[in-house]
Design brief:
- The structure holds 2 protein chains of 2 kinds.
- Chain A contains 19 helices and 2 strands.
- Chain A has helices at 2-23, 32-36, 42-72, 79-105, 149-167, 177-200, 204-207, 224-242, 263-280, 293-319, 324-339, 349-369, 378-396, 399-405, 414-417, 421-451, 458-463, 465-470, 502-513; strands at residues 126-129, 132-135.
- In chain A, strand 1 (126-129) and strand 2 form a beta hairpin.
- In chain A, helix 4 (79-105) packs parallel to helix 6 (177-200), helix 6 packs antiparallel against helix 16 (421-451) and helix 10 (293-319) runs antiparallel to helix 11 (324-339).
- The chains are: A mainly alpha, B alpha+beta.
- Chain A binds chain B through residues 462, 467, 470-473, 476, 480-488, 490-492, 494-496, 498-499, 501, 503-504, 507, 510-511, 514-518, and chain B through 9-11, 32, 34, 38-46, 56-57, 68, 70-72, 74-76, 78, 82-88, 90-91.
């Protein structure tokens, strides 16, 4: 026993030493020297603080996703969500550090390649050209903010983790746990960084006029496409290969509702996500001192409020009841939709964008449920609303804000300019992002399905993922698991083999005794 | 009159209910039950320790029918509840002395199953 601990200790020491090698380069890559010398300017301090606070709010959205998904799952699948969220967040953290950040935010048309792997080779701290000072010019899209590179790194990592969390919304209650680990590495290391690089990391879609097409730059302030649509696209690819939960569709092909076990948990999840969005959109300024963030926060909130109201109204008109789940979905959809335009539109447009998203999500959930099994409505709330939000930039972007952010048509969207230029850029951009992420994700899941399998067995699915994948129940005392393993097996295969079918023989005898029959 | 008590798997209930309804037996009750038999319990792992839950969840289905209907109901249950594996459950048939419908005070076999729509109207 003692020997084993000694081996473990040695292994962890070796791992620490390995990690310390890239760490040796940190000396040139932080503002530590300046900070020690008391030379970190107030501006750097304030902006970094805001970016870290916003990033922490976005990290808290993981709790929102956890509660939302637990609430919409049956009680036999509650615990597995906790393990999933913790593991995915952690894999994303390491993958983002290793290569995700470098690929997403380095300089480059298609792939970022100016350094940043393992947060090393970060280039000069600032450079001044023609009187314009940029900070960390090797990461050009974020270089107008003087927040430290570590705070930008953390903020963008939290975005990557949100996008990854969205992927799994469609896969609840039937996916094998190992699939999370495999896809998370690919998604956080390659798929998300590339998609995000094109859309809001300085890549060709954002820069515009790629391959001489003359298309203006795509506008996506905080990631309706880059975070939400990309996540939902991965979710669609997973769902198509995974299939519906057992019992979701009857023999007649009609969908049956499979109610989640806790609407209070779901509601808590929605409210945590709503709070997290106050970091998500306003934090995307990467800057506190330009004073833009309070306006963006207010716009975000206006949109979410409108989304709740229209979703409640739409569900009431369609189904006759005031639907709790749809009220929450309306909030999420509106927040997703306002994510892209939040830094580009005037406040009057926010309730319109959010309100339309609230209608879209309800109709989307009703329509999608007829064909594919999306337990939390992620395809509608993040996918359809993400598409609407991205498109809405092409309609409502205000000229003054397009010029301030310096992306896209400086004359603004259709409403102001009467020109379809921005709208076309938005549609083309989101189509390219969708096609890329769908192809990559479908391919990855296809390989996983062939090599490892995506689904648990039907018996494990009936017993619930908590007991079959994790060997314990999420609610050990109150919970009565539904069906068990026929044949007396257990999740861990430790039960004895089934005895002779004495019961079946006796049962047949009993049937034979009855004179009248059926 | 006979009372039929069947301990069945959860997933067997819905097809049994549907067929009994089809055959004119809408009145039945189910209870969540936990029990042990040949089928062993469930082993849980909780933060490094194991614990065994020695009883497994089942449904208990209860239904009171006229003597002549007993075998048909039993066969319906057998048909849907049998997978051939240990853990399919058991059926018990028990004699019943009296039956009274609370709403009307009627007694006897009349009260065993719900009236059809036409009978209520008449």
């Amino acid at each position: 026993m003692r020997r084993r601990y000694a081996v473990l200790l040695l292994a962890s020491a070796a791992l620490t030493a390995m990690l310390a090698v890239p760490g040796a380069a940190f000396a040139d890559s932080t503002d530590l020297d300046k900070a020690i010398a008391g030379k970190l300017s107030e501006s750097v301090g304030i902006n970094s603080l805001w970016v870290i606070v916003a990033g922490a709010l976005v990290m808290f959205m993981q709790a929102g996703f956890a509660f939302l998904e637990i609430g919409f799952s049956r009680a036999k699948n509650a615990g597995t969500v906790v393990a999933k969220i913790l593991m995915n967040f952690s894999i994303a953290a390491i993958a983002w550090w290793a290569c995700g950040f470098a690929l997403a935010f380095g300089a480059g048309e298609v792939i970022g390649h100016s350094g940043g792997f393992f947060l090393t080779n970060l280039g000069p701290i600032s450079s001044t050209v023609d009187g314009l000072t940029t900070f960390r010019p090797d990461f050009p899209v974020m270089s107008l903010s003087d927040a430290t590179i570590e705070s930008k790194f953390f903020f963008q990592f939290a975005f990557c983790a949100v996008s990854l969390a969205i992927v799994w919304g469609t896969t609840l209650e039937r996916i094998k746990f190992g699939v999370y680990a495999i896809y998370a590495v690919v998604f956080a290391g390659v798929i998300y960084p590339l998609g995000a690089h094109w859309v809001f990391g300085g890549g060709f879609l954002q820069a515009g006029d790629w391959l001489g097409t003359g298309i203006v730059g795509m506008q996506d302030f905080a990631g309706s496409t880059a975070v939400h649509l990309i996540g939902a696209t991965g979710a669609l690819a997973a769902l198509l290969l995974l299939g519906a939960r057992r019992g979701k569709y009857g023999d007649d092909g009609k969908p049956r509702p499979i109610p989640g076990h806790s609407m209070p948990f779901f509601g808590l999840g929605v409210l945590i996500l709503w709070l997290g969005w106050f970091g998500f959109n306003p934090g995307s300024t990467l800057n506190a001192l330009d004073g833009r963030f309070p306006e963006i926060l207010m716009i975000t909130n206006l949109a979410a409020a409108a989304g709740v109201l229209t979703a409640i109204a739409t569900a009431k008109l369609k189904s006759g009841s005031i639907d709790i789940g749809m009220a929450g979905n309306g909030a999420i959809a509106a927040l997703v939709a306002i994510t892209a335009p939040s830094g580009y539109v005037e406040p009057w447009a926010a309730p319109i964008i959010g309100g339309v998203a609230g209608v879209i999500v309800v109709l989307g959930v009703y329509a999608i449920d007829k064909y594919i099994d999306d337990p939390v409505g992620a395809l509608s709330a993040h996918g359809l609303a993400g598409i609407w939000g991205t498109i809405s930039c092409g309609i409502f972007t205000a000229p003054r804000l397009a010029q301030y952010n310096a992306f896209g048509d400086p004359n603004g969207g259709l409403w102001y300019s009467g020109s379809f230029d921005q709208l076309i850029a938005q549609v083309v951009g989101l189509s390219i992002a969708f096609a890329f992420v769908f192809t990559m994700s479908f391919g990855t899941f296809w390989v996983i399905k062939r090599a490892y399998g995506l689904r648990v067995t039907p018996e494990e699915e009936d017993a619930g993922l908590d007991i079959s994948e994790h060997g314990m129940y999420g609610y050990p005392e109150q919970f009565i698991p539904a069906p068990e393993y026929p044949g007396g097996g257990t999740a861990l295969g430790t039960a004895p083999a089934a005895p002779a079918p004495a019961t079946a023989a006796a049962a047949t005898q009993m049937a034979a005794d009855s004179p009248s029959g059926a | 009159m006979k009372k039929i008590e069947a301990y069945i798997r959860h997933e067997a209930f819905e097809p049994i209910r549907a067929e009994l309804l089809d055959r004119g037996f809408p009145s039945l009750s189910i209870l969540e039950a936990k029990g042990s038999g040949r089928q062993k319990g469930v082993v849980e792992h909780y933060r490094g320790s194991t614990l065994t839950v020695n009883v497994r969840p089942k449904l208990k289905l209860e239904c009171v029918v006229e003597d002549k209907d007993k075998s048909m109901v039993v066969e319906t249950i057998l048909k849907h509840a049998r997978t051939g594996d240990v853990g399919d459950g058991k059926i018990f048939v028990i004699p019943v002395d009296e039956a009274i419908r609370i709403r009307t005070g009627e007694e006897g076999e009349e009260v065993l199953q719900a009236h059809s729509e036409e009978e209520i109207a008449a």
